[in-house]
Amino acid sequence: DVLGSRGLGDVYKRQDVYHIVSRGNNQKNILEEDNDKKYFYGLMKEKAGQFQVEIYAYCIMSNHFHLMVKSDFKMLSVFMRELNSNYAVYYNCKYGESGHVFQGRFYSSCIEKESYMVSCIRYIHNNPVRAYLVSDILSYPYSSAREIFLNDRRKKRGCISRDILGILSNRFTSLDQFYDFHNVFDNPVSYTHLTLPTIRLV
Known about the structure:
- By secondary structure, the protein is an alpha+beta fold.
- It contains 7 helices and 4 strands.
- It has helices at residues 34-50, 73-95, 114-125, 127-130, 144-149, 162-171, 175-181; strands at residues 15-23, 54-60, 64-72, 107-111.
- A hairpin with a 3-residue loop joins strand 2 (54-60) and strand 3 (64-72).
- The longest helix is centred in the middle third of the chain and has 23 residues, at 73-95.
- The model is unreliable at 4-13 and 187-202 (pLDDT under 50).
């Protein structure tokens, strides 16, 4: 269940999986309009390709965003700096503002266990449900849930890495089981102790 070695190797060359959160300055709605979210999505996809960052999951909310990525430590910082600074330029130009758009440095947490990773993906996808914006994860257009569950049937995966789809297919018997897993809520601090149910589909 451990995703990778945590030995004394060069941390700047080792690739790890990270959960990232970045918020608008003073909790401002910096991604409020649909066009803002679409622009940010395109920028995220572009910068991920440019800096060899693999996107495992994402959710773009109005005043913050969540990402799960696989990257080496150095490129992660460069990727986030370019993503946030380029979006800040767009935002300030569009709305005639100046100054900080994002609230300080982004938050990042290294994910070491696969059980925590899949639970974190569930948490990311459920953000708009918990915020009462939608009643179902597939109803929200700006998260990786739609790319994983809907586009998979058309073999179109947007910006989502094929690696995470392979991990999910090994852990769940089907996309339906992974979808059902999103409806099982738990305490985020207990993700590393999660035991997944065994479900047989007829």
